[in-house]
Amino acid sequence: MPGEDMEVDESVTSVKLKQAFAGALLGRHAEHGDDTLTVRREAWRDVARFLRDEPDLRYNVLMDLTAVDYLTLGDGGTAARYEVVAHLYSLPHNQRVRLKASVPDDDPHIDSLMPVWEGANWFEREVYDMFGITFDGHPDLRRILLYNGFEGYPLRKDYPQDKEQPLDHNAQDPTFYMNKRDDAGSETRHMFVHMGPSHPAMHGVIHMTLELDGETIVDGDTEIGYLHRAFEKEAESHTYTQVIPYTDRLNYVSPLINNVAFVLAVEKLFDVEAPERCQYIRVLVSELSRITDHLTCIAANAMELGAFTVYFYFIKAREEIWRLVEAICGARLTTTYTRVGGVMADLPADFADRLMEVLALLDEQMHDVERLLQKNRIFHDRMRGTGIIAPHDALALSFTGPVLRSTGVDFDVRKTTPYLVYDRLDFDVPLGETGDNYDRYLVRMEEIRQSVRLVEQCMAQMPDGPVQLDDARMTMPPKAEVYGTIEGLMNHFKLIIEGIKPPAGEAYVSVEGANGELGFYLVSDGTGRPYRCRVRPPCFALMQGLQKMLKGGMVADVVATFGTINMIAGENDR
Amino acid sequence: MGLETIFGSGFITSQLNKIINWGRKNSFFPLPFVTACCGMEFMATWGSHYDVARFGAELPRFSPRQSDLLMVVGTINHKIAPVLKRVYDQMCEPKWVIAFGACASSGGFYRNYATVQGIDRIIPVDVYIAGCPPRPEAVLEGLMLLQKKVEGEDILNRGAPIMVNGQAYSEERLVHVEPPMDRRANHVIASHEGPGVHPWQGFEEAERR
Ligand code: SF4
Q: How much is the ipTM here?
């Protein structure tokens, strides 16, 4: 959101960068408060390293790395067709910067950032997969979401959206598994075990290849992309309002948070803020969604470890919350509740009473589950000391959310850059100590309680008022005006046929999703459809660290660790 | 000679059909091939609230060799399609397939390079459940429809056309399911569908019960 000193021309980052690399900085802007630096392609890695190491900057987290194809925007994409875009975050100084570099069409390559941030790994593979830009120095550049044999790069503007390239369904040899771990050159007594893509404990489809020495995991590889359904490409051919239903299906366990995040990004392009009541409602539904997400995660995790009762208890609690959600927006799961500038409808009349009942039931179930699990020897044995990740590794791998907090790093977007009305609400951010599976479980349980606190405060503080901005650029006129006045009719027609048209520009918004920082990076060309709509999926970063968490552990820990990471395939593969 | 002369021809096979199909339809072992958002409703249906155990299908088997009902829950893209085919091929007869949700049935609202436009491009489907995602009630309805279908099968020749009210049901393995909006809408359905098809919608039977 726009801050006070954002209008000044120079930021600390750009001043420092100019001092160190006089010729490398090509341009800078701070549209919508996002500090943006364009640098020369040749200096990409040096600049990145400088930003990470300079004591006054310390951008130690690579939040997101993606690309944009400017073929049909600007100068027709001749000299600088692609732009590689990185979003950096500095935990010590709590600031963000966007770093960009142009990549020409005839020679699409750029330095890999893996030597600077290990977490660049999968992000760069994705850019390669989708845009065909190669990264020099990347040790393992191959397709990630798509498969061998796929020709072309789908997020390029000249790739037709519906050009399918099916595989041979009867292929007996699954050669499309592109695992780097293959028998060649490894210890002969090591065994390779495949887990997934169809496996009982793989809720969501992934495929792991594990190299085992006895029962110990020596090495492994994760193959994802089995639920890639081209969200980002679909978004480019839909109006902003039509994209909202697609965001439901990103992290489908907490769809309301995605809805909120997406419209916040569009509102940032417009530089508007929703009415106060609407902001409270958005916080309220986000927190309800966070509760359902954590419930589902713990339920599935416990079930996979054999504690089936927990599953039934928590699914029951989730069912009750879903009924509330259904009362709010008419759907249990695919909510599509928010609109640009507001929400679809106000809360129902009897909402407060029903909410209290549900929260009481939730409290009961939480209490029962705590007794079932925290006093359970088996649960402790399976969860304690397994799947450990160190804080510095977690940061280097771009971890966020409960998994990062379980290592003791205090990072929660709701606290560091409060959006909506989080700064008026009182809540704690639970932190773990060891970064093992048990800590992640405890962090999630405590976050449920904190979310309940937030929900209660929202209900107490929520003012009366409209839930939708009165702004003709994004809000439908009332029906009486549509039928009664020519302006109303025109406005309605334009909003329906052409869609909402944010001013041209770019904006990145991040919110605290249930699994970590959920970001939307929008590039608008001033038309009714996003030119580029990029999601920063929290699980994607977590999944690239999975093998690091598993290495050295037992094969039986895979299930527990995978469960606490809470991978949601819809968000991971998009 | 033999029992046929006493009971009339076809008595034994028809009674055998009945008893075996009764067993089959009340003890499905589903293999949930869960990929996407529909899986959340799958979990809800299999939870205690909707209690799928009432239909004898509460025990998911994750090995294709131990299951007879493949539930394809969620979007299937081109990368996972060969895996789905393989899982289906590994299942032993008799086996049935439910396409759970809009994506599995038709690709849903994903019309793009990645998504398979309906699993019936890869494997045969018995029951399609509409919805994005289908509500648990619709899932149960779909399960009951499959039960009805199994009831009418000839165990020796499962590929044979199914006889419905004395007429051959033509589309061999296809039953389209809409979520039951209003059970009393029988006459509406009857006026839209030819005879021999609409009893398969399952409304009549439900009405009688
Ligand atoms: S039908 Fe809807 S809910 Fe089900 S997998 Fe497809 S998009 Fe998700």
A: 0.84
Which residues of chain A lie closer than 8 angstroms to B83, CB-CB?
Answer: 174, 197-198, 226
Residue range A226-247, pLDDT digits in tens: 888 889 998 888 899 989 999 9
The total of other beta-carbon atoms located within 10 Å of residue A431's CB is 19
| For residue B122, pLDDT beyond 80 | yes
Nearest residue (by CA) to ligand 1, atom 5, is B74
Tokens of A196: 């997934």
Which of helix, strand or coil describes residue A254? coil
Could you identify the atom of ligand 1 that is nearest to the CA of residue B109? Answer: 7
Q: Determine the residue of B33, B35, B37, B100 to mutate for testing ligand 1's pocket, defined as the one with the most ligand atoms within 8 A of the Cβ atom.
A: B37
What is the tens place of the pLDDT at every residue in A562-572? 888 888 888 88
Tokens representing residue A307 in the block: 């504690």
Give the nearest ligand 1 atom to B131 CA.
1
**Residue in B34, B35, B38 to alter for ligand 1 test, most ligand atoms within 8 A of Cβ:** B38
Within 8 A by CB and 6+ apart from A101, the residues are A38, A39, A40, A41, A44, A83, A84, A110
Are B44 and A315 within 8 A, CB to CB? yes
Q: Note whether A294 and A447 are within 8 A (CB).
A: yes
SS3 of A43-73: HHHHHHHHHHHCCCCCCCEEEEEEEEECCCC
Sequence-ordered alpha helix ranges (H) in A466-514: 479-484, 486-497
DSSP string, B19-80: HHHHHHHT---EEEEE-STHHHHHHHHHSTTT-GGGGT------SGGG-SEEEEES--BTTT
Question: Which tens digit of pLDDT belongs to each residue from A367-421?
Answer: 988 888 888 888 888 888 888 888 888 888 889 989 999 998 888 898 888 888 8
Residues in contact with ligand 1 by the CB-under-6-Å rule are A 249, 334; B 36-38, 74-75, 101-103, 108, 132-133
Question: How close, in Å, is residue B141 to chain A by CA atoms?
Answer: 18
User: Is A449 exposed, middle or buried, given 0-12, 13-18 or 19+ CB atoms closer than 10 A?
Assistant: middle
Q: Kindly state the DSSP code that residue A554 receives in the 8-state scheme.
A: B
Ligand 1 centroid from CA B38, angstroms = 5
Look up residue A344 and give its two tokens: 């679809």
